[in-house]
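Annex B, item 7. Sequence and structure tokens for protein A, then protein B.
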Amino acid sequence: MDHMSPRLRAFLSEPIGEKDVVWVDGISHELAINLVTRGFNKAYTLLGQFLLMHKNEAEFQKWLICSCGATESEARESSDCLKEWCSCFL
């Protein structure tokens, strides 16, 4: 876990619970607003989208960029975060 950002480390330290989507590493305030507008207000709803895409990082990143206005960096960081969370808790 030494290579992880403090934000990612905090996200992975416990189950998702009722965390807002902005807790996901890589999700900026602006992207969070776009996600909430589309019904993804909680981290678990974004995780659900990731799981519906069969944890396919490239597909998830493309969806975040094209549908939600994420930057490539935001999309990569958030998919990495969700992938790591799945590795820890699923």
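Protein B:
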Amino acid sequence: MQAAGAVVERQLAYGEQWVVDASHLLAWSASYTAERSHTGCRHYGPAAEEAWVCRFTGPGVVYIQTRVPENVQNSTSHLSATSSAKPNQRGS
């Protein structure tokens, strides 16, 4: 399994619930319902009005990633442009 960041495994006991930002989901065996969260989500920025979350109910296991793939891509996109520049071509 590949992930952006670390992989976190959460074992849910019978009837235990856990709400997860849908952008962090990797795999699961627990039952769930998808919901819109109107409180916003910091992963979508301060202008976000809603985010999709999943409410899992045990028993089962849920695997999440600690980073959102889009955020990883955005935070590393400058590396390809910078790494190809030669030292004498960089500005001071």
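Comment on protein B: The beta strands are 7-12, 17-21, 25-28, 31-37, 51-57, 60-65.
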